[in-house]
Structures are given as structure tokens and as C-alpha cells.
Amino acid sequence: MSHALQAVRGMNDILPDDAETWEYFEDIVRDWLASYGYRPIRTPIVEPTPLFKRAIGEVTDIVEKEMYSFEDSLNGEPLTLRPEGTASCVRAAIQHNLVAAGGPQRLYYYGPMFRHERPQKGRYRQFHQIGVEALGFAGPDADAELIMMCARLWDDLGLEDVALELNSLGSAEERAAHRAALIAYLEQHRDQLDEDGKRRLYTNPLRILDTKNPLLQPIVEAAPRLADFLGEESRAHFEAVQVFLKDAGIPFRINHRLVRGLDYYNRTVFEWVTTRLGAQGTICAGGRYDGLVEQLGGKPQPAAGFAMGIERLLLLWRECGGQAERAAPDAYVVHLGEAAQRLAFRAAEALREHGFAAVLHCGGGSFKAQMKKADGSGAAVAVVIGEDEARAGEVGLKPLRGPGGQQRVALADLPEAMATLLYSEQNGEQGIDDGGV
Ligand code: ATP
Ligand code: MG
Fold first, then answer.
1. Which of 177, 189, 288, 388 shows the greatest Cβ crowding within 10 Å of its Cβ?
2. How many CA atoms lie within 13 A of 89 on its CB side?
3. pLDDT, tens digit (0-9, with 9 covering 90-100), for 196-225
4. CB 54 within 8 Å of CB 60
5. Which numbered ligand comes closest to the C-alpha of 314?
């Protein structure tokens, strides 16, 4: 026997029990996005590698070591499986002139992302994100709305222990001034820096503040703060965001070391973190990225957005008792004999035509065995067709969950009888069979 093949490490199958939870969650999410006026956009999973190098930045974890990049075997074009969604979304908006032609855009994407990381709980090589991008909005109102939106989703999902961390990265000039001060400071501590730190000292010193190395914490804590370099406009913008959040009753903590892993952010940045998922505690991250559209070749356009990790969100949702209702059919159709089988097909189709979910038993077996399957399916009602019924052009209806005995109706009356049964069951009344006595 040959060896059975396995999925790629860090890339997960989502089996039916879980996939139903995903779909249930996705329904909630779609309603939530629509309630804020966001519209979907779908972009390719593979993009030209330079897109990510330019958007995310050469000296970032993602571009330095996490991308799945390869050459097109036909023409040698460098391609990459998307590690995040903002770059593609902005590329598409520029390519199709969305903002210039249609004004500011509220867009969202949803789908798999790929990063070559060490797989562990809440960290995978293929994972999923929902991302929201507000393109063409310059003000602090847009930033605040993005954050409020997240808070509403946590509320819709009943999540607990999610805290908001907030910071401002200021403008490019303000960051440059801070950067110079930071380099001067870090140079004094050069010997204590780790490999990454030494390497980033001159290329991306801001990212050293983001280090997870506990040995560097004292150095990082005493480093010059970006907040002290913010100019009037940046400070006003940041304060306005905070006023909106206070009005909305959303608590937050200002985290001066929050710099985000991608280079394109400016001004407001934020993360939603939980203590319930161990080391992988950030479920959502985002901020303003006013320079990105121009950086990718578009006409300058302010923008802000966020992305949330679906696997982490679902882990937390389950921790907080979230669960999908099991998707069960309304009816399971059992049948015995050739004529009955043919009638069973018609009965099942008649039900579906009227909007009921029906599972038709396939594969034969005794009535008893089929009824066991019907019960196991979770269906509310078994539609039972024996030789007798087939001869009369009728079907039996047997409630499997609620009260009430079996009744027989003509095939033409099946959908209505089914509706009455389900409706009266939902109201906690007796089934029509008993109701008529
Ligand atoms: P981290 O610091 O955990 O690596 P990040 O800063 O790289 O996160 P972003 O690029 O901001 O993450 O992506 C937004 C969200 O996507 C994260 O907050 C997280 O919820 C999720 N995410 C990122 N990388 C992964 C991954 N490898 N597996 C699962 N979820 C992920
Ligand atoms: Mg990361």
C-alpha cells in the first residue's frame, strides 16, 4: 500500500463540523459589514512579488522571511501567494480607478493568506483574514468608525476579554525625526541588541520597539517616544479619534510601543488583543495608511483599514461559548421498493421547490435502518414511502423531534403539510395529526 498523502504543514483542512461553524460566523460577518455600508472586493490569491515588496516594505518579517514566492515556470515572472490583503485591494482600486471614478470607497475582502511561519496555536501557514479598507477618507472620523465597527462585531459575537490598544505613528516627517533620535539612543545600547536588532538598527529601528525578546524590554521601554515627536496636526487627529471613542464608550489603552508589523501605516494604529489565546493574542490590527496608494503608483489618496485573523477569532469565540447551530435538513425521505423510490425522488424535489431542505435516502436498506439514518441526520420530519403509499400516490409524514404521530397526505399536499408541521412545532403546539382529533 502506498503512503497516504497529508496536507502541507501549517495548512488546515476545515472539516464539516467546523466548516458549518465558519459559515455561520460568515453570515454574521456579512450582515455586520453590510450594516456599515462596506462592499465586497475579490482579488487574485497570486500577485506579482514586487507588489508586496513595495507595499509591505523590504525590511519586514513578512517580506524578509514569510512569503511563499516562486517564479512562473513559463515566463519567469516573480509571483507570491498573498500574505495579506491590503496591497491587493489597493492595487485593484488603482488599476480600476475606483476612487477617482466613484469617490471614497468602503471595501472589504475575505479569504486565505499565506505566510511561512512556525505553525502553532493561532499561527498557521495558510490562515484567513477579513479585512476592511476605507479608501479616500482622511479624517479621524473614519479611523474611529473602523474601531467602533470592530467593537460592534465583538458584541454581536459575544466575545469577552478583548482590549483595544491605540497609538499614533504621526507623519513621515515626524517619524523621521523620531527615527534619528531612536537610532542615536539605540547606538548607545548596540552591544545589548540581538541579531534582529543590530540588523534593523539603521534599516528599520522603529521595528526594534516591536521586539518580542524579553531581554530587550528595558532598553525598549526607555527609548525615545514617537508621541513626543508628533506635530500639531497629528496630535489633533489622534485626539479627535479618542474623543469619538470615548463618546462611543469604547475603552482603550495607549500603547506607545505599538508600531505594527507593516511599514505602510501612519497616524492612527490599533490592535485588539486578548489574554485568552496565549502568545497569539492579537485578533485584529489596523490603522491609517495615507501613503500607500501613491506608493503603489496611484494618485495620492488617504486610507485606513484593519484585518482580523479568522482562526484566532473563532478560537476566542468558542472559548466564550460561541457555537453554530447544527445545520439539519427539514426532511429525510425513506422508501422501500422501486415504485416508492421513484415517488421519493418526486417528494424530495417537491419539498425543495417549496424551500425545504430534504435529504433523500440513497443506498437501500430496511425501513428500520433508514429510519435510523433519518434520526441521525437531525431532520425534523421523516417522509415515509412504502409500497402502499406509492400505490396511492401518497406519503407518510412522521415528526422525529416534536410530538405527533404519523399522518398520510397526497404528494400534492406534502409541502403544505410539512409547513404546518414545522410551523406548529416551532410554536410548541401539537402537530396537525393530533390537532385534528
Ligand atoms: P503577529 O504579530 O501575530 O504575527 P501580524 O502583525 O503579523 O501578527 P497582521 O499582518 O497585522 O498580523 O495580520 C492581521 C491579523 O491576522 C493578526 O492580528 C492575526 O489575527 C492574523 N494573523 C496574522 N498572521 C497569522 C498567522 N500566521 N496565522 C493566523 N493568523 C494570523
Ligand atoms: Mg506576523
1. 288
2. 29
3. 888 888 888 888 887 888 888 899 889 999
4. no
5. 1
Ligand 1 atom closest to residue 131's alpha carbon, by position in its atom list: 14
Kindly identify the ligand whose nearest atom is closest to the C-alpha of 282: 1
Give pLDDT, residue 261. 61
CA–chain centroid gap for 435, Å, is 46
With CA atoms as reference, report the closest residue to 130 among 311, 330, 265, 1. 311
Estimate the crossing angle of helix 338-353 against helix 414-426, to 10 degrees: 60
What is the DSSP secondary-structure string of 34-95?
A: HTTT-EE----SEEEHHHHHHHH-SSSHIIIII-EEEE-TTT--EEEE-S-SHHHHHHHHHH
Question: With a 6 A CB cut-off, is 128 part of the ligand 1 pocket?
Answer: no
CA dihedral over 67, 73, 78, 80, signed as positive or negative: negative
Distance 62 CA to ligand 2 centre (A): 7
Grid coordinates given for 2: 502506498
- pTM confidence score: 0.88
Query: Which spans in 158-304 are helix H?
Result: 172-188, 195-200, 217-221, 232-247, 292-295
Radius of gyration from C-alpha coordinates of the chain: 29
Q: Which amino acid is at 149?
A: M
Closest among 10, 6, 210, 199 to 117, alpha carbons compared: 10
